[in-house]
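Quick start: what a row looks like.
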Amino acid sequence: MRKKLLYYLIAGILFTAILGTLSHFAYEWSGNNQLVGWITPVNESVWEHMKLLFFPMVFYGILALPRLKNNFPCITYGYLWGILGGTLAIPVLYYTYSGILGTNNTVIDILIFYLCVFLGFAITYILSPCRPCPCGKDYKFYKKFLKFSRKLKNPLLPVILVLVLGVCFLLFTKSAPKLGIFLSPNL
């Protein structure tokens, strides 16, 4: 059964990586269509590049999760944390390496995107089992994580956070705050 999950997550990595890569150019290809810009980067800012992972991973989840829900009833919970973890790792890794080097590098930026796609699906894989798997390790980790999230008094926390992040992407595409994450870096 875990092989089925692994198959879907590997397919998700490929889907997200390919669609995210194509999304980088979609706004320009569309003739700067505002509707396309809501879900694809409209400039070179770190914030806009977080869309490269967020929306393709959301779209893949809409396609794949209904097929996995019967065997993995907690897949949605793990998947939402995967979306958040992968998306938010992009600015963390970007600002960490560019702060250390004092500059940014396009090759490293691209590698960060692919690493974060993998990270998002790895988080999903770790947090998805609701039943003990043969190795037992992932299930123990999941139970601890679930216990932690219940202490937050809101098991809907990842749902709310993904929705808020999605709305922020839509709102800040048109009117971004004057903060560094929303500005294009010096290339």
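That is the whole record. Confidence is low (pLDDT under 50) at residues 132-136. Residues 2-29 form the longest helix (28 residues).
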